[in-house]
Amino acid sequence: MSYENWKDKTADFEKIDVRQLQGNFFPGLKKKAESLKAGEGLVIIQRFEPHPLYEVFEKMGFEYHTEEIAENEFHAFFYRTEVIAGDDDTGPFRPIALLNYPLIDEDLGKIAVDFWNVTWKSKKRSLPYEMRLLLSLTNAAGAGRMRQASRELIKAYACGVDTAVFDDIFELLAWNQGIGYFSSEIGPSALFQAYKMIKAGEKRGKSRKEILDSLTEKFGEKNPEVGVQ
To answer: Whole-prediction pTM value?
Structure first.
């Protein structure tokens, strides 16, 4: 099915204008989308094209079509063609930090979202997504950005990266950054605490989903060491 098959139904879609909302409004949007039946839809109005939402909505059985109505005004139409169960695995930490940029400048907000889309979602990329997360993790840790490194670690684990890979990464961090830096900066960080939670959970025989639930609860957006809003 394509937009041409359901465009006549868009007049009945509920409109949700998120341009003035601050903080993480994604859970609310997702809950609203989950409540829709096949054959129903909604319109999300944003200052920029909402690339981060496309994959999430597709996993729930939605098709989408986006139009630039005016400068800094995009209408994204989402139409549910089927109700797909088991859509909870959308990955932790959506890029909500991007919402900060339009507060500074509308054009900057659009540039930031487009930059994110090219970096993380473009089919031109050669490295697998999981590998790019691990590179981002190590780059962030090396630069002292433990907040970012923690988020990348949890996202990588959600994507199925084996814990033994994290063992190698922390060993290399100790080698490249030095024992002193590792002991004083990495060891006490949220990054290493998340790693230890994964190791402890697996040792106790917990499933990956159970461990991810615990990680999300402890290291979610409300955690000041990890959150970006």
So the answer is: 0.76
Q: What type of residue is 160?
A: G
Contact 156, 118 (CB under 8 A): no
Q: Does domain 1-113 have CATH number 3.30.110?
A: yes
Tell me which residue of 229, 159, 223 sits closest to 191, measured CA to CA. Answer: 223
What SS3 class is residue 30? helix
CA angle 4, 7, 9 (to 5 degrees): 140
Q: Which two tokens stand for residue 184?
A: 């004083």
For 35, the 3-state DSSP assignment is: coil
pLDDT tens sequence across 150-196 = 999 999 999 999 999 999 999 999 999 999 999 999 999 999 999 99
> Tokens in use for 60?
């729930």
Q: Which of 209, 211, 196, 190 is nearest to 166 (CA)?
A: 196
- Parse the chain into domains and list their residue ranges: 1-113, 122-218
**CA 146 from centre of chain:** 17
Residue 37 near residue 83 (C-beta atoms within 8 A):
yes
* 3 state SS of 148: helix
* Residue type present at position 223: N
pLDDT digits (tens, 9 = 90+) for 186-202: 999 999 999 999 999 99
